[in-house]
């Protein structure tokens, strides 16, 4: 169940190859890469199972909800029934104003179907998706250029031409992340951490050591990225960072 972290999907082909070798399913969390590309194809056009989110902070929104894309016909039917109380071959009828009174339920179902109001919002946002993505791409490109020479900052590897950016994450080296995060917030620049390692959380608490994960967890910092971000805003964020790191090193 790989996550398209920060909209990156370049590692997926290797996982698909491994999955094929061992007859595994691959369910991709593509919540952050809607409208992006991989190897010239839209995310969701190929592969096994792709899950999109249309939450309020994603690349497009329907207020809430999401979508599952798969080429597996049997799985698709099960998903359709599962998101509408488990009724088999009944969901499509309901959305055309019909209803079957003679249906069957053989798998657990949920009330996960999208309302017509949410779908209408999503369809309007879909028309604006490419424009939204271009604005974010410009901001990400500007961030990368301005940060390329900043000491103690390392950008993640981005294929900006293919990605549909959702968040912009950097690594702050030499134990300076927390200082930078708190002082940027004091300046009114919102930033945060996506995410804490699962084995730090109570439900999944473990004494196992994951040294690479734990190292990166101390370094990552998410910077502002949204469709109303202007060039001057990016310059201000980066300029504040440079000044603060300079003060830290002084």
Give structural notes:
- With 250 residues, the chain is of the alpha+beta class.
- It has two domains: 5-122, 3-Layer(aba) Sandwich (Aspartate Aminotransferase, domain 2), CATH 3.40.640; 130-249, Aspartate Aminotransferase, domain 1, CATH 3.90.1150.10.
- Helix content is 37%, strand content 12%.
- The chain is built from seven helices and eight strands; from the N terminus they run αβββββαααββααβα.
- It has helices at residues 12-22, 73-82, 91-94, 116-147, 177-186, 211-217, 231-249; strands at residues 27-29, 37-38, 41-42, 49-53, 66-70, 153-155, 168-172, 220-223.
- The chain has a three-stranded mixed sheet with strand order 1-4-5, with helices on one face. A three-stranded antiparallel sheet has the order 6-7-8, covered by helices on one side. A two-stranded antiparallel sheet has the order 2-3.
- A hairpin with a 2-residue loop joins strand 2 (37-38) and strand 3 (41-42).
- Helix 4 packs across helix 7 (231-249) and helix 5 crosses helix 7 (231-249).
- The longest helix has 32 residues, at 116-147.
- The model has no long low-confidence stretch (mean pLDDT 91).
